[in-house]
Amino acid sequence: GDSVTQMEGPVTLSEEAFLTINCTYTATGYPSLFWYVQYPGEGLQLLLKATKADDKGSNKGFEATYRKETTSFHLEKGSVQVSDSAVYFCASGGTSYGKLTFGQGTILTVHP
Amino acid sequence: DTAVSQTPKYLVTQMGNDKSIKCEQNLGHDTMYWYKQDSKKFLKIMFSYNNKELIINETVPNRFSPKSPDKAHLNLHINSLELGDSAVYFCASSQEQILGETQYFGPGTRLLVL
Q: Residue B45 is nearest to which of A46, A100, A107, comparing CB atoms?
């Protein structure tokens, strides 16, 4: 079945540092790929998505590129802020009736 | 206006009890989902409904029974609660159940079974 693997956390950074959170997937067919973010005490919000190979999703300074050859969708941000502290989830949306398969989540803490 | 809402936000109960969690979306979406998030933050789909019809049932114990009275509501009833049911339960919705469709999540219901 489909699976998503994210880099182990937690990740702790200083403000303005560069962020990378790795994500790889296995899927039958050609899934859509998503990054969701969960702020403390809240539900998940879509951060960005890409629906086909070589697409780049971007939002709020975050970017991720759908790499079919490496089955990856790594999340990057050039300069993180304290307000980016949250749990980040990579997910793949296969062809099975909109079902999302999530990675295990990566806790990001950004210090001033 | 809240797009996807859940009640209650917190639920503390004893083992063996029966409880329900309600979910409503005002986005006009056709598809709704229930997810379970465990203590390690791992999220897994439980059910999805499209226009009140069950589409996905991910080998969840039959103590869990979703009910969709209309396409804006998807409630989750849990019988004979067990300690292992303690988790955060998220409701979500999407316009359709197709590839690439964004899902919108509720704030979660934190269930603690004692």
A: A100
Distance CA A33, CA A97 (A): 15
Across the interface, do A105 and B43 touch by the CB < 8 Å criterion? yes
Find the angle CA(B60)-CA(B64)-CA(B69) to the nearest 5 degrees.
120
Contact B16, B113 (CB under 8 A): no
* DSSP conformation letters of B56-102: EE-S--TTEEEEEEETTEEEEEE-S--GGG-EEEEEEEESSSSTTPP
For tokens 């998220």, the residue is: B90
Question: Residues B31, B106, B34, B103: is their CA dihedral positive or negative?
Answer: positive
Distance between CA atoms of A54 and B5, rounded to whole angstroms?
Answer: 35
Cross-strand bridge partners of residue B34:
B47, B91
Cβ of A98 and B94 within 8 Å? yes
Of B96, B99, B106, nearest to A95 by CB-CB distance is: B99
Tell me: pLDDT of A17 over 90.
yes
Q: What is the pLDDT of residues B39-94, one digit of tens each?
A: 888 899 998 888 888 887 887 899 999 999 998 999 999 999 999 999 999 999 99
Q: Would strands B43-50 and B31-37 be described as parallel, antiparallel, or unpaired?
A: antiparallel
Measured CA to CA, the distance from residue B1 to residue A95 in angstroms comes to 31
Q: Which residue, among B35, B103, B104, would best test binding to A if mutated, counting the most A CBs under 10 Å from its CB?
A: B103
